[in-house]
Amino acid sequence: MSGFIYNILNDLKACSKIGDVIRKNDGQQLRYVRNWGEGWGYLPEGYSVVFVDNHDNQRGHGSGGLSILTFRVSRMYKIATAFFLAWPYGITRVMSSYYWDQDFQNGRDVNDWVGPPHDSDFNTLPVTINPDLTCGNGWMCEHRWRQIYNMARFRNVVKGTPVQGWWENE
């Protein structure tokens, strides 16, 4: 691992794998993640940035395809993000994105190029904060979703402690 001594890398495989697990693709089950991280062939602890989605793969670019979870499947997205924030592997990054109208033609979103919310002069609209702490003006602000910010707090409290008392219902 000497080649990685000065690098921390985005782990793009983790995006699609956690999507497969949460979607139950190919018989995957959440209980299979008990050795998530190096046990799944990922980089050693401390060298990996893990995330559920990013600005490329949520639009179908790059790897992962239909395995990638985004704000459009919010329940599964929250579960996957909660797992990444709870599990002591890697540096977890939480996406904060914006809404765009999808238009699928021949299996591809032809609106995948659409940029952030803007006015008629293409000035980016400001993020507005709603009374329930979610965002408006077309901004999704996943980092403000209650389940996600509570898990970020949890991660900060338990940082550096191992998983204990793993239990699964076979």
TrEMBL record:
Highest taxon in the source lineage: Eukaryota
Family in the record: Belongs to the glycosyl hydrolase 13 family.
Name of protein: Alpha-amylase
Organism: Allacma fusca
